[in-house]
Amino acid sequence: MISVVILGAGNVATHLFKAFNKAGNVVVKQWYNRSLKPIVTYKNEVEVIDDLSTLKNADVYIIAVSDDAIAELSEQLPFENKLVVHTSGGVGVYDIDKKLKRGVFYPLQTFSKDAEMDFKNVPICIETIDKKDYHILKALAISIGSPTKKVNSDQRSVLHLAAVFVNNFTNQLYRIGHEITESEGAEFDLLKPLIFETAKKAQYISPYMAQTGPAKRNDKKTIKKHLKILKNEQHKAIYKLLTKSIQFTHGTFKGQ
Amino acid sequence: MISVVILGAGNVATHLFKAFNKAGNVVVKQWYNRSLKPIVTYKNEVEVIDDLSTLKNADVYIIAVSDDAIAELSEQLPFENKLVVHTSGGVGVYDIDKKLKRGVFYPLQTFSKDAEMDFKNVPICIETIDKKDYHILKALAISIGSPTKKVNSDQRSVLHLAAVFVNNFTNQLYRIGHEITESEGAEFDLLKPLIFETAKKAQYISPYMAQTGPAKRNDKKTIKKHLKILKNEQHKAIYKLLTKSIQFTHGTFKGQ
Ligand SMILES: NC(=O)c1ccc[n+]([C@@H]2O[C@H](COP(=O)([O-])OP(=O)(O)OC[C@H]3O[C@@H](n4cnc5c(N)ncnc54)[C@H](OP(=O)(O)O)[C@@H]3O)[C@@H](O)[C@H]2O)c1
Ligand SMILES: NC(=O)c1ccc[n+]([C@@H]2O[C@H](COP(=O)([O-])OP(=O)(O)OC[C@H]3O[C@@H](n4cnc5c(N)ncnc54)[C@H](OP(=O)(O)O)[C@@H]3O)[C@@H](O)[C@H]2O)c1
């Protein structure tokens, strides 16, 4: 049995709590947040606390608070030499106070309050300063069905950065698709199956192999037509830059 | 029973042939291509031809050849006043020779040779010059399980353009994710569940509501760190431009 204390009550903390709570070999001993409000509804399932001095002994303490608050919260912990991990892609493992045994338990996924999350679709990137602490974090991830990967801080930074490209930036391309279709009275909904299929393809074909379209073919007529349709200068700039990027990748860039 | 002749033997033609061939109320009378080679393997299922003068009578002729070849092929058809449609997002309905009854049957999806395609995930955008021709195309789409939408040429152009954003450009963001992870010895595979989840979210939450991340939060520290990690100038430019675009959308842009 692995005992865990969760600190924080946001998206990640809440999803982790639910997953651990269902897992057979994990017990969530306490759930801390600086205010009880978001966790008080769980008080029949777990001891909820808002006072760090009441923290009990556990195998792993998981700090799932905003990036900027991780270091400070770790300093305030009223003990030493226990295993404390954060869940951030962008924060170093050394940002946790050095009186503690330190690690990272980074779930490489996008969480939102409402949507359920199956942790088998959440790769956990694990880092520890002391090798000995690795196995318990791995066991913890496995207990909720997650694939795991040992990832050092540089790799984690780069994964976090890549996540911005494939998640935030991709979502902004969807948003632009939404804006330009609605501006012509066309339905964004018609694009949803294509959005889904594009992501599905990436699961088994490399993005290099999957690429198609006017940019890759250097179909100048279509590109010109598209730039004419686009009214928004920022959308035009994005169109040009990503077209160029595709052409660089596929060796079809002819300069312009 | 709707009788159809398919012209062309590429991705779209092949997927349409298979779907029509399975449909209860559609008969593919002939399959034409300028060379028999890619279609000869289907000769037990359909009459395959490479000579336009042997074309038989049918309710609908579907030209699924490269955009540039549509007009010319339609001119060469040895009959008048029959319903001929193309399958392109980027070609006007008037590009089909005017001796014919003209229309468009545009499948808004990305097809590839190997991957199977369920046509319930392929919205068909229909346009006809003569209203009377609309219903047979709609019936044809319904027979293969596709949702349909009446779409005029301007709307179709804009859908095609939006498809470039959500398909080609998104796929290029995946590619960049691939490049930057592999360059640090991190695994692109770890991003695949996130890619999938991002597209899944877009099925039921608007991209506006779904957005998260450092750009939206205007988290300057993380943005600066990311720009430092990026070595490739083009990747940097894309990062900056899409960050700015997100900030414009969400009103968090503070100048730079
Ligand atoms: N969301 C994701 O998709 C995702 C994915 C992977 C990793 N992460 C990482 O997981 C961590 C948590 O992210 P999240 O999305 O769950 O955050 P969130 O939903 O915004 O919740 C933030 C939590 O941090 C607490 N907090 C903020 N400032 C604090 C402070 N000064 N002292 C104590 N607690 C403080 C908040 O407490 P109150 O409830 O009192 O405001 C809240 O419980 C971050 O490191 C993030 O980078 C997030
Ligand atoms: N692929 C997609 O995801 C997709 C999605 C929606 C719409 N579309 C549209 O569907 C149409 C077909 O696209 P596709 O992807 O199926 O194309 P494709 O796989 O590249 O196949 C092109 C076909 O056109 C034929 N062709 C090319 N030039 C020709 C010419 N001068 N005369 C006669 N035939 C010629 C080729 O014949 P050979 O076999 O002899 O070379 C081949 O059968 C295009 O209008 C495209 O815009 C494609």
Q: Can you tell me about this structure?
A:
Chains A, B: Residues 122-246 form the DUF2520 domain. Chains A, B: Residues 4-87 form the Pyrroline-5-carboxylate reductase catalytic N-terminal domain. 2 copies of one chain form a homodimer. Chain A is α/β, with parallel strands linked by helices. Chain A has 2 domains: 2-151, NAD(P)-binding Rossmann-like Domain (Rossmann fold, 3-Layer(aba) Sandwich), CATH 3.40.50.720; 156-250, N-(1-d-carboxylethyl)-l-norvaline Dehydrogenase, domain 2 (Orthogonal Bundle), CATH 1.10.1040.20. Helix content of chain A is 41%, strand content 15%. In chain A, strands 3-2-1-4-5-6-7-8 form an 8-stranded mixed sheet, sandwiched between helices. The longest helix of chain A is centred in the middle third of the chain and has 31 residues, at 153-183. The model of chain A has no long low-confidence stretch (mean pLDDT 96). Chains A and B meet through helix 4, helix 5, helix 6, helix 7 and helix 8 of A and helix 4, helix 5, helix 6, helix 7 and helix 8 of B. One NADP nicotinamide-adenine-dinucleotide phosphate is lined by residues 8-13, 33-35, 38, 64-67, 69, 73, 87-89, 107, 110-111 of chain B.
